[in-house]
Amino acid sequence: MKKFAFGRLVFLGATLILVGSIGFYFIPGMIAADADGNRLVNAFYCSVITLTTVGYGDICPSEDIAHGGRFFVILLSFSGLGMFCGPIMDFASSWTHQVPGGALGVAVTTVGLGVGIFTYLEGMSHVEAAYFSVVTGTTIGFGDVGPKTDAGKIATALYAVLVVNVVGALLEPATEILSQFCVDSTVPASSHLEEDSKKER
């Protein structure tokens, strides 16, 4: 099992969020002109939602984003994929095995946390809040339900960092099961290796 330097993960994640926030704040067209709330909060929110690949499409980017802004989003997105689908996902899956109830217990608790946060801060119904929590955690990010207040946007950004990794850790066993199901068990593994080595020649 890999041993992670938690401080380095936090530093790298915070740096990416800071760079993203600066870009969303200063590059024209990165945030919709009619977006409600504080611009700095919106920039932070958009940065995290982009880095976690949730991408609601609610206030960022705007329809009049320039080519420079699009290029920035491309670079930020690949950085987010590298970070959140790499070291952070590995870190999340390493600690969920040590929690009582495992990944499923953590996932249920995390969705419950989301329901509590979003019913309180955004006035969502319990069903809307559960739906929003799952849509965020699975990175579907439809954008049909979302935060409207500055406090809700900050909470959503922080929650997205948590829930995306919890759901990723939860899906790890499902990925292994589906991968095993899709492998042709009638063909010995050694014959696959022989075929691959012949193709390389």
Can you describe what's shown?
This protein is an all-alpha fold and 201 residues long. It has a single domain, classed as Helix Hairpins (Orthogonal Bundle). Helix content is 70%, strand content 0%. The protein contains eight helices and no strands. Helix 1 runs antiparallel to helix 3 and helix 5 packs across helix 6. The longest helix is centred in the last third of the chain and has 33 residues. The radius of gyration is 20 Å and the shape is globular. The two termini are 34 Å apart. The model has no long low-confidence stretch (mean pLDDT 86). Its main location: membrane. One of its GO terms (cellular component) is plasma membrane. This is Potassium channel domain-containing protein.
List the helices and strands and how they pair.
Elements (H helix, E strand, L loop, with lengths): L5 H21 L12 H13 L15 H18 L2 H10 L5 H21 L3 H12 L12 H33 L6 H12 L1
Helix pairs in contact: 1-2, 1-3, 2-7, 4-7, 5-6, 5-7, 6-7
Membrane topology: Multi-pass membrane protein
Family: Belongs to the two pore domain potassium channel (TC 1.A.1.8) family.
GO molecular function: outward rectifier potassium channel activity; potassium ion leak channel activity
SSE-based structural type: mainly alpha
Shape field: globular
SSE topology string = HHHHHHHH
Extended strand count: 0
- How far the N terminus sits from the C terminus, by CA atoms, comes to 34 Å
Mean pLDDT, all residues: 86
What about the largest sheet? none
Spans of at least 5 consecutive residues whose pLDDT stays below 50 are none
Estimated radius of gyration = 20 Å
Structural domain count: 1
What oligomeric state do the depicted chains represent? single chain
CATH classification class: Mainly Alpha
The helix content, as a percent range, equals: 55-70%
Transmembrane segments: 9-28, 40-59, 71-89, 101-121
Family: Belongs to the two pore domain potassium channel (TC 1.A.1.8) family.
Membrane topology: Multi-pass membrane protein
Keywords: Ion channel, Ion transport, Membrane, Transmembrane, Transmembrane helix, Transport
